[in-house]
Amino acid sequence: MTAVTTPVRFGLLRTIRLGVRRIGFELRQYFRAGDQVFFTFLFPTVMYLIFATIFTGDVGQGADAVSMATYYLPGLVAGGIFLSGVQGLSIEIAVEKSDGTLKRLGSTPISPATYFIGKIGEVFVTAILQIALLLTVAVVLYQVELPSDAAAWGRFAWVFVLGLLACALLGVALSSVPRSGKTASAVVIPVVLLLQFISGVYIAFSSLPEWLQNVAGVFPLKWIAQGMRAAILPDSFAAAEPGGDWDLGLVAIVLAIWLVAGVILSRVTFRWIRRNG
Q1: 81 vs 29, 53, 62, 179, 207, CA distance in Å?
Q2: Which residue among 12, 62, 131, 271 is buried most deeply as judged by most CB within 10 Å?
Q3: pLDDT tens digit string along 95-148?
Q4: Is residue 216 in a domain?
Q5: How many other C-beta atoms lie within 10 A of the C-beta of residue 59?
Q6: String of DSSP letters for 43-110
Q7: What does the alpha-carbon distance between residue 173 and residue 154 come to, in Å, rounded to a whole number?
Q8: Is 164 within 8 Å of 158 (Cβ atoms)?
Q9: Distance in angstroms (rounded) separating the CA atoms of residues 54 and 51
Q10: CA 231 to CA 237: how far, in whole Å?
């Protein structure tokens, strides 16, 4: 029994170890691409600066009133998660497929699992740094008061992790749609922008027509934004949600469904290109 199980364990540990080492390589590649850094990493912060500067005043009633800078923060956090996972990975992988990187990797001992540990690790590190920058700008420049209780930060953490995993896997699946690396941005960015506008990132979700809210409710970004509003905004703002409540249980269920769907779609659509074609 020992002779059978030991190689499997070694293979798994070796795969994880190589994947973790690859995260550093992926991060170096990421930050060397100036256009990607701007349009994925810095974009939520730039948009936040624009919205928080243009739109001033308070939202809400009495003691629960918050500044517009606070009101826009959850949506931009959700938008950053979506950009890092869906837009970032889909374009990266499409380009690597087109320029021959995947084919070269296919001729080496590296496994697809190692490759994706590196990619998803890169997404998590960059997303954490991205959100940290966004929160820092909110606090320092606009005096936004972040949640002070552990429950709110716990809510923030599980929405972040579950949402980012789902978005990363969907990004892998979406990378199979562009026909070449040159067309990847043209295919992916319009989809990402459209979903941001209908999911409560740039426009208050409650102000959208009901049919558009229903369309947005099919996709994960709407639920990530709702979870982030639940973590950052006062509880009284839950009344503005479609169901009059944060519905965190439903947020978790929908994101878990999209996570499973992402696993299936990425497994079906991704092709590890070998030298023999």
Answers
A1: 19, 22, 31, 25, 23
A2: 131
A3: 888 888 888 887 777 778 888 899 999 999 999 999 999 999 999 999 999 998
A4: yes
A5: 17
A6: HHHHHHHHHHHHS-SEESSGGG-EEHHHHHHHHHHHHHHHIIIIIIHHHHHHHHHHTTHHHHHHTSS-
A7: 29
A8: no
A9: 5
A10: 11
Domain housing 82 = 2-54+63-269
- C-alpha span between 273 and 106 (Å, rounded): 6
Provide the pLDDT for residue 273: 60
Q: Which two tokens stand for residue 209?
A: 């027509």
- Please choose, from the candidates 170, 229, 154, 235, the residue with its C-alpha nearest in 3D space to the C-alpha of residue 199: 229
Q: Phi/psi at 33 (nearest 5 deg)?
A: -90, 100
Q: Within 10 A of 190 (CB to CB), how many other CB atoms are there?
A: 10
pLDDT tens-digit readout, 178-200:
888 888 989 999 999 999 999 99
Burial 100-135 (b: 16+ CB within 10 A, else e): ebbeebbeeebbeebbbbbbbbbbbbbbeebbebbb
Domains contained in the chain, number: 1
Whether 19 contacts 113, CB under 8 Å:
yes
The answer to whether position 199 is within a domain reads yes
Residue at 277 is within a domain: no
Distance CA 270, CA 93 (A): 10
pTM: 0.90
Say if 34 falls within a structural domain: yes
**What whole-number distance in Å separates Cα of residue 127 and Cα of residue 133?**
10
What value does the mean pLDDT of the chain take?
89
Tell me what pLDDT residue 276 has. Answer: 43
